[in-house]
Specification:
Blueprint (H helix, E strand, L loop, with lengths): L4 H64 L6 E2 H8 L2 E5 L8 E2 L2 E2 L13 E5 L8 E10 L2 E11 H52 L13 H50 L6 H33 L7 E4 H18 L3 E6 L4 E4 L1 H18 L5 E9 L2 E8 L6 H4 L16 H11 L3 E7 L3 E9 L14
Parallel strand pairs: 1-3, 2-4, 9-11
Antiparallel strand pairs: 2-7, 5-6, 6-7, 8-10, 11-12, 12-14, 13-14
Helix pairs in contact: 1-3, 3-4, 4-5, 5-9, 6-7, 7-9
Length: 470
């Protein structure tokens, strides 16, 4: 239970609040103690000063009354303590008997009454066991100190004010913790629920089930994580389906020429074929199917190199017109056999610095894809033009066209709309990028497709070190 994130998050949240509250309360109490002490000493200073002045006047009156025989002004301790709210003491010789009735006295050593300064101190009055905060103010007669008036209050009064503050802080803290706890629990649910859903989805993906539901209204970064997780699961599922289709396609592509080769070789070994002409045809078939196998294995190897960036391009002068003618001748016989209207249109004869073999491989792959998509009796065109600082080789067919939803992933490995292995276009795209160019697709369902290889007319081939080594 305590290991659950749903429980640990609120506990950590509350722990942080409690720690902050304890630190804040400790600082507040300390500040309040200092404030209460300073405030008490301030009040005592005012009271001691006021009463000391009364005492000074009383002493002055007493001395003056000895000459004119007038009665001195008298004050009672009770009335003064009631008026000030503090206890009053006197330190020093009693020079004015009767002027202040009943004022308590303290030993001379309690405070330096001969100084002319106000003094703050703590003491325990005789006959008591309580500590008092006190302020002593000098009593002057003719400008000379004749004693000190002490105003005091129990230290426990200050402590009582601190205790009252602590009780209120505890009450406020309990209420704050309750509110914070409810808020923390609510926030933990908001945060943990999407995490638990993502955890369940991850378990399903680990078991091979990529059709998972992810939180759609997760807050902040969790929402972003949820969306990316959903995309990842979708891509993994798509990748698995594509790979499965690829394996089935490759196994079929491999089995077909192997079956043909095995059949013709068996016939030759068993002596079934006795006619020299038929024997020659069988050997030509074996050679053709072996070449087909070699091309398929080559595509797979190229794909592996693409994935690990271990293929290279070289620099040489490439006659693009001659290259287009070579590609055209490669497919002319297939076009004649399938009654496809196959034409080429060379508008310019540029010579560029690139890798001729790789450029030819791209063009052949585009033509192979076009012939595979074009039905018998259709049309395929091969165009070469130089414009806007680039060389463009376009292959256009009259096949069924490619839906927009498929165009985005058509250049991924193993994706094919025409029954092939889905390697040719993926290889062509990567090679065109390595040559500093790109492939542009324009297709519409029912209208056919146009693939255009765009290469820089200048020297824009990437160095071989940039893309790896064979």
């Amino acid at each position: 239970m305590l290991g659950s994130l749903r429980v640990r998050l609120p506990l950590v949240f509350l722990g942080g609040i409690l720690l902050a509250g304890v630190v804040t309360a400790a600082i507040s109490i300390r500040l309040f103690q200092d404030y209460a002490r300073d405030s008490t000493f301030g009040n005592l200073s005012r009271d001691a000063y006021g009463v000391a002045r009364l005492y000074s006047r009383a002493a002055q009156n007493y001395v003056g009354n000895k000459k004119d025989q007038r009665a001195p002004t008298k004050y009672t301790r009770e009335s003064l303590e009631k008026a000030t709210g503090v206890r009053l003491y006197f330190v020093g010789p009693n020079l004015t008997p009767g002027s202040i009735t009943g004022l308590r006295t303290l030993p001379y050593k309690t405070v330096d009454w001969t100084s002319r300064k106000s003094q703050k101190f703590e003491f325990t009055p005789p006959g008591t066991n309580r500590t008092y905060l006190a302020v002593a103010n000098p009593v002057l007669l003719g400008g000379h100190p004749v004693g000190a008036l002490v105003a005091a209050t129990p230290k426990t009064d200050v402590s009582h004010r601190v205790v009252t503050l602590v009780k209120r802080l505890i009450l406020a803290a309990l209420l704050g913790v309750l509110i914070a706890g409810l808020l923390a629990w609510y926030l933990s649910l908001k945060v943990v629920r999407p995490i638990l859903q993502l955890s369940g989805a991850a378990d399903k993906v680990a078991r091979g089930n990529y059709e998972v539901e992810v939180p759609k209204r997760a807050p902040g970064e969790l929402g972003h994580l949820s969306a990316r997780f959903g995309e990842m699961a979708h891509r993994l599922g798509e990748s698995e389906r594509v790979e499965r289709n690829f394996l089935m396609s490759v196994s079929h592509e491999l089995r077909t020429p192997l079956t043909a080769i095995r059949g013709h070789v068996s016939a030759l070994l068993e002596g079934v074929v006795e006619d020299p002409e038929l024997e020659r045809i069988s050997l030509e078939t074996v050679e053709a199917e072996a070449g087909r196998l070699e091309r398929l294995v080559g595509d797979i190897i190229d794909l592996a190199k693409l994935d690990t960036h271990r293929f290279t391009v070289s620099r040489e002068e490439v006659d693009m017109e001659a290259l287009v003618d070579q590609a055209y001748e490669t497919f002319r016989e297939e076009a004649r056999r399938r009654e496809i209207d196959f034409s080429r249109d060379v508008h310019d004869s540029p010579i560029i610095e690139s890798d001729g073999d790789r450029v030819l491989q791209i063009v052949v792959n585009l033509l192979s894809n076009a012939f595979r998509a074009t039905p018998n009796g259709g049309r395929v065109t091969l165009d070469l033009v130089q414009q806007d600082g680039s060389v463009r080789v376009a292959v256009e067919d009259t096949g069924p066209g490619i839906p927009a939803r498929v165009q985005e992933r058509l250049f991924r490995p193993f994706v094919s709309e025409s029954g092939g292995t889905g390697l040719g276009l993926a290889i062509a795209k990567e090679l065109s990028g390595a040559l500093g160019g790109k492939i542009v697709l324009d297709s519409e369902v029912g209208r056919g497709s146009r693939f255009e290889l765009v290469l820089p007319a200048g020297s824009a081939v990437q160095p071989a070190s940039a893309v790896g080594s064979r």
